[in-house]
Amino acid sequence: xxxxxxxxxxxxMLRNMERFPKFFTEHSDKTLYGIMAAVDTNEHVRRKVTxxxxxxxxxxxxxxxxxxxxxxxxxxxxxxxxxxxxxxx
Length: 89
Known about the structure:
The structure is a single chain. By secondary structure, this protein is of the alpha/beta class. It has a four-stranded mixed β-sheet, with helices on one face. It has helices spanning 7-23, 43-51, 77-85, and strands spanning 2-4, 35-40, 55-60, 63-67. It is globular, with a radius of gyration of 14 Å. Helix 2 links the parallel strand 2 (35-40) and strand 3 (55-60). Helix 1 crosses helix 3.
């Protein structure tokens, strides 16, 4: 959750999502999805988040909305790691 979501926050999230399965092997049987929440961000960063397959929640006033653009496909981050390691996920 960020009050002002920036590119560097998205990059950090992607690094964390890729490393998570390696450090928390007890969750290897579960599908790992990402979600980021922000109060303020710009269209470029919003696209970067959803293009990476991460859900994006926008918080405005008393409303919490999850943006799901047309064609959005949620990334399964633990499968990405497993595929890179040559292990089926």
